[in-house]
Design a protein that fits this description.
By secondary structure, this protein is α/β, with parallel strands linked by helices. The chain contains 13 helices and 6 strands. The protein has a 6-stranded mixed β-sheet with strand order 4-3-5-2-1-6, with helices on both faces. A hairpin with a 2-residue loop joins strand 1 and strand 2. Helix 6 runs parallel beside helix 9. The longest helix is centred in the last third of the chain and has 19 residues. It is globular.
Length: about 300
């Protein structure tokens, strides 16, 4: 599950760093299409869609089944409605991610990881000096984003901008399950020891970022949730503090946010929230929702 946490971190971090002016990577051919579920309980009869937040250009993910669901839906519900407000997001990140008097980044990792940190910083085109003013969780985000520049992917080509444009054009409301501040708070409230472990995990995955992203993108494009789940089982043992704060607690909060909903919402959240322990689907089913895979 630590990989699921780092994957969430990596994909979310790319909302903070522009990846423009680069030739796009070849887009994989979509087969069955990304996973989509129908969610029903009482007066609620909507959809749950597992997204990927950043993509290369040209990924044809909006299949006829997904388009039909968007047309039938009466509103869009994202993880955070205000995530598309770049100025607000960056301002919150700077306010929450910086603290005075922090030790240099290299002093926040074990001696055995310092060489790997130096390589990850150099490969990402950044430095310890540039990141040392940030708390360890925020430094990990920025390091992850720097490591992903070679992927040639962008939030602008991700799923959410297409969903937002489609629902805006149709004159349908757009809401969120949480706020950007709540998303950052999940990281910001981690104890320093957990933040340091997250930083080390980011360092480890920097060297294999392209292979990891390619595997996840291929699995997501085909709706292969089993393959995505298997990524969670690779690598280091889970850090329960990080897992609970970044994934489980937020999933539980989202169930509470969905509870009063009626009508036909199209709920779109990162696919990483739909696999693993206490994933959103399992938690919804435990509350009496009928969740049916439709693609």
């Amino acid at each position: 599950m630590m990989r699921a946490v780092t994957r969430l971190l990596a994909f979310f971090a790319l909302t903070l760093v522009a990846a423009c002016g680069q030739e796009p990577a070849p887009a994989p051919k979509v087969q069955a299409g990304p996973a989509l579920w129908q969610v029903q309980r009482g007066a609620l009869n909507g959809w749950l869609f597992g997204t990927i937040h950043v993509l290369p250009k040209g990924v044809a993910w909006d299949t006829p089944t997904i388009k039909e669901a968007m047309t039938a839906a009466d509103r869009l519900v994202l993880e955070a409605q205000d995530l598309q407000d770049e100025q607000k997001t960056l301002s919150l990140f700077e306010a929450m991610g910086r603290s005075p008097g922090l030790p240099p980044l290299e002093r926040r990792v074990p001696d055995t990881e310092k060489a790997a940190l130096d390589k990850a910083l150099a490969d990402g085109g950044t430095s310890s000096q540039a990141l040392s003013g940030y708390e360890s969780w925020a430094a990990a985000m920025l390091l992850s984003a720097a490591s992903q520049q070679s992927l040639k992917v962008s939030q602008d080509d991700g799923v959410e901008p297409v969903l937002i444009a489609t629902f805006k054009q149709a004159g349908k409301p757009i809401g969120g399950l949480e706020t950007v501040e709540r998303q950052f708070a999940a990281f910001d409230t981690l104890p320093e020891a957990a933040q340091s472990r997250l930083l080390v995990q980011t360092i480890h995955e920097a060297k294999g970022m392209k292979a990891l992203y390619d595997r996840i993108l291929t699995a997501w494009s085909k709706g292969d949730m089993d393959a995505i789940a298997k990524e969670d089982q690779i690598g280091e043992q889970p850090d329960p503090v990080v897992e609970d704060a970044i994934l489980v607690a937020r999933n539980r909060d989202w169930v509470k946010a969905i509870a009063p909903m009626k009508g036909r919402p199209f709920i779109a959240v990162g696919a990483g929230h739909l696999t693993g322990r206490d994933n959103l689907i399992t938690l919804l089913e435990a509350k009496g929702y009928k969740v049916t895979r439709v693609q």
